TrEMBL record:
The keyword Hydrolase does not apply. It holds the Pfam family ABC_tran. SUPFAM superfamilies: P-loop containing nucleoside triphosphate hydrolases (SSF52540). One of its GO terms (molecular function) is ATP binding. Keywords: ATP-binding, Nucleotide-binding, Transport. SMART domains: AAA. This is ABC-2 type transport system ATP-binding protein. InterPro entries: AAA+_ATPase, ABC_transporter-like_ATP-bd, ABC_Transporter_VariousFunc, P-loop_NTPase. Residues 5-230 form the ABC transporter domain. It comes from the Bacteria.
Length: 296
């Protein structure tokens, strides 16, 4: 399987602080990949390393078989839409398209103009006067007109209202399908990822907790609810991701090839949001345990 992004023990340090450390990942091509994790997990740093905007402090990273940003040809393969959907406030929509044509050798001017017209953006309007949703659509147009093989989006719809976000993600899905794009999309809104992504990566504390096709992940994770029990006493093959207990009841999210068959336990499917929260909660619980041991 062809990889669109590979990293091995990847790290990035700012001064004395590691923003990303010991990150190992292998993302296959041909997917809309959702990258999710808590604030400070290293998502934005990873995406900037993949886009060639940063150089690694440690480890290595390969994007589409090459070193990010190493050559003009490599740069041309990757489109990047940053978190704050940056545009030049004083330039018009048309001037942004002309600038894109000058900077990108694979530029598709006809597609860019058609898309701007379809979105109802006025070419003579300055970008600083556009709404948040319009600016996001302009930056998406610039990224798509570059004709990249990989489009990276870092929280592109975070500041948009629900309708603008829905329209942005709908256009993204249509463009990815039409152009057979690989997409890596970072977001803290799991509902957005659930709607558009067919591959998921959960990144916590710079480490990949789980990665895979969303349909496979959801088919192999279950919620178990039953009488209070220590996780170690569950049947073999039930890998416990997270655990919650009351005086009489235990609730586990587990990864297993087959659901447990025990009349004392209720087995139910989980949503993508449940799955993400379970892996994030596991890391939080481990941190609490280590802190308590150190303090004790």
């Amino acid at each position: 399987m062809t990889s669109v992004l590979q990293a091995q023990a990847l790290g990035k340090k700012y001064g004395s602080r590691w923003a990303l450390r010991e990150c190992t990942i292998d993302i296959p091509a041909g997917h809309i990949v959702g990258l999710v994790g808590p604030n400070g997990a290293g998502k934005s740093t990873l995406l900037k390393l993949a886009g060639g905007q940063l150089e690694p402090t440690a480890g290595g990273i390969s994007v589409l078989g090459g070193r990010p940003g190493s050559t003009p040809a490599q740069l041309a393969k990757v489109g990047f839409v940053a978190q704050d959907t940056p545009v030049y406030a004083s330039l018009t929509v048309a001037e942004h398209l002309r600038l894109g044509a000058r900077l990108n050798p694979r530029w598709d001017g006809a597609m860019a103009r058609e898309r701007i017209a379809r979105l109802g953006l006025v070419p003579a309007h300055r970008a600083g006067k556009l709404s948040g949703g319009q600016r996001a659509q302009l930056t998406l147009t610039l990224g798509l007109a570059k004709r990249p093989d990989l489009l990276i989006l870092d929280e592109p719809a975070a500041a948009l209202d629900p309708l603008a976000r829905h329209e942005f993600l709908q256009h993204l899905m249509e463009a990815a399908a039409e152009r057979k794009l690989s997409v890596v999309l970072s977001s803290h809104l799991v509902s957005d990822l659930e709607r558009v992504c067919d591959y998921l990566v959960v990144l916590v504390d710079s480490r990949v907790q789980i990665a895979g096709r969303t349909d496979h992940l959801l088919a192999t994770h279950y919620r178990l609810t039953g009488p209070r029990r220590d996780p170690g006493r569950l049947p073999a093959g039930q890998y416990v991701v997270s655990a919650r207990h009351t005086d009489r009841q235990s609730t586990f999210v587990v990864r297993a090839g087959d659901p447990m068959h025990d009349p004392a336990w209720t087995v139910s499917r989980i949503s993508l949001e449940d799955l993400v929260l379970a892996y994030m909660d596991r890391r939080t619980a481990e941190h609490r345990r280590v802190t308590q041991e150190v303090q004790g």
